[in-house]
Write a structure and sequence with these properties.
145 residues; mainly beta; 6-stranded antiparallel barrel; 2 helices; 8 strands; 6% helix; globular
Length: 145
């Protein structure tokens, strides 16, 4: 199995310490996804600008390995299994974030509420569809209990 980036994120965040923990904590952090030329991505971007929010799937490129147990910042009861967290230290370091779409210009997707680092390889972009993606009554797992 191989993944090939469709582009790269460009933003002011360059270190893990600067990265917000989640997109909601990244309010107004702006960036741009620069898609690679020569792949017909300009056609793939058609109609994307009609969405307010988009999913961005990306590669945690600063993580050299994974850990089966991690200590999330909001954990009050110790380490958790990595699959029960959103930690970047995963067997396959794939991340996903919902970001606010500002505009699309040629092969550049301008976004805000961005929790990724500069140079992050982007694997895919999908529209955020509220009626299927939001589940307001879903439990909060270990976060509040």
């Amino acid at each position: 199995m191989q993944f090939t980036p469709i582009g790269y994120l460009r933003c002011a965040l360059t270190t893990k310490a600067q990265a917000p923990r989640q997109p909601v904590a990244a309010a107004d952090t702006q960036g741009r996804i620069e898609l690679l030329a020569g792949h017909n991505f300009e056609h793939a971007l058609e109609d994307l600008d009609s969405w307010e929010l988009i999913w961005v799937l990306f590669w945690f490129h600063h993580n050299p390995g994974w850990r089966p147990k991690v200590l999330p910042p909001r954990s009050t009861t110790g380490r958790k299994g990595v699959f029960a967290t959103r930690a970047p230290h995963r067997p396959n370091p794939i991340g996903m974030s919902v970001v606010r779409l500002l505009r699309v210009e040629n092969l550049v997707v301008h976004v805000s509420d961005c929790d990724m680092l500069d140079g992050t390889p982007i694997l895919d972009i999908k529209p955020y569809v509220a009626y299927t993606d939001a589940h307001p009554r879903a439990g909060a797992g270990w976060l509040y209990g």
